[in-house]
């Protein structure tokens, strides 16, 4: 309970049915979870920003979330990757490999170790312009990943053609599948599709019911926080800024309840937790104003339990059986980890009892995506059940893609033009000018400045 604040089938040739079944299995098969380039490309197709877990100490979850929001607002095919100087991301091929696997005509900004370079398809942005913008951004913010990337995106977005992950386009699957269906005749074919659709609808309902319990708990907890606040907008010591914070928190509470009441699919949960995250930050700001304390920094919620409110700092943490990664934590959990204690982790009911939410299954992707936003979530949960799900296109909705529909994630959007080449923001796969996607060798930008060379397109680097 939430806290209240005021039909038989026609005969079909066996070979035809076998071919269809093979197609269905192909479309339904999940992608293999992988690391390095594969993980980066999967995340970029979904949310445009990828931060390797090894780099979260230098480019925080909050900074990645803010950059993701900026790219969503700009709606341009600009992709940003923050990568370590590692063999997983070879200096000579990392740009070509990411461009090939993401497959979208656009601009690719890559911070690797202590170096920064940007690459682009000419239909999105002239390579020479990309070169100039990248160099200027780094020289303005030497060694500062956040400053450099935001400066680059601000400038590149003004000149880049095409649309980003919010753009339109017809997916390759949307064109191919109808053609296949026209070739497959007989009522039995369509019966198979109806059955598959029914199973999918049942799965969606079950996952939404699973999520509803958890989200209702979150909404209730937030309502209780509002009750405990005991803030009277009409009190003599209340000022306009405090009233604005309180109004924002109340609006977020109402928006969360309304969005959950209207939810039909699991991905509809994401706006709910986005609203709760915004409301909790408003409460934290209001509390600071009332106590005459410095206003809190806008950060993502505590990784261990978003109900703890905004995080205050990043800490090192390794889930059971997982590698160490940097995660945002509230003050209490950060202090507990510093003294050798376990943090207070949000657990949810599963078939195997209560488990941390990151080990509860892919149904929790939109729930967590609303709290942690865009490209940062895969890095936080890499190596967990949820992290594996986020590397599977079927569950791309967690980072902003669509839920469970083959070919509807960003990398499959694409309409080919009359000349046989894709335009900016459209899917081209591996059909692009590789000379525009050079390497980090032979003269690039590093945190110390311009290493000679430069100019022209990136094939000259």
Question: Can you describe this structure?
Answer:
With 461 residues, this protein is an alpha+beta fold. It is 44% helix and 9% strand. The chain has 14 helices and ten strands. The strands form three sheets. It has a six-stranded mixed sheet, sandwiched between helices. The longest helix has 43 residues, at 187-229. The chain is globular, with a radius of gyration of 24 Å.
Number of strands: 10
Radius of gyration: 24 Å
What structural category do the secondary elements indicate? alpha+beta
- The percent of residues in helical segments reads 40-55%
How many DSSP H or I helices?
14
Mean pLDDT: 77
Helix/strand order:
HHEHEHEEHHHHHHEEHEEHHHEE
What's the overall geometry? Answer: globular
Beta-strand percentage range: 5-15%
Which regions are unreliable across 5 or more consecutive residues at pLDDT < 50?
Answer: 6-12, 14-19, 23-34, 167-183, 393-420, 442-461
Organism: Kitasatospora cinereorecta
Transmembrane segments: 170-193
Keywords: Membrane, Signal, Transmembrane, Transmembrane helix
Protein name: Transmembrane domain-containing protein
Features:
alpha+beta, 461 residues, disordered C terminus
Brief summary of the model shown:
With 461 residues, the chain is an alpha+beta fold. The protein has helices spanning 14-28, 36-47, 61-74, 94-102, 127-140, 145-159, 172-183, 187-229, 240-262, 270-290, 331-338, 365-372, 377-381, 385-390, and strands at residues 49-51, 78-83, 107-112, 115-120, 313-317, 325-329, 347-350, 353-356, 445-446, 449-450. Helices cover 44% and strands 9% of the residues.
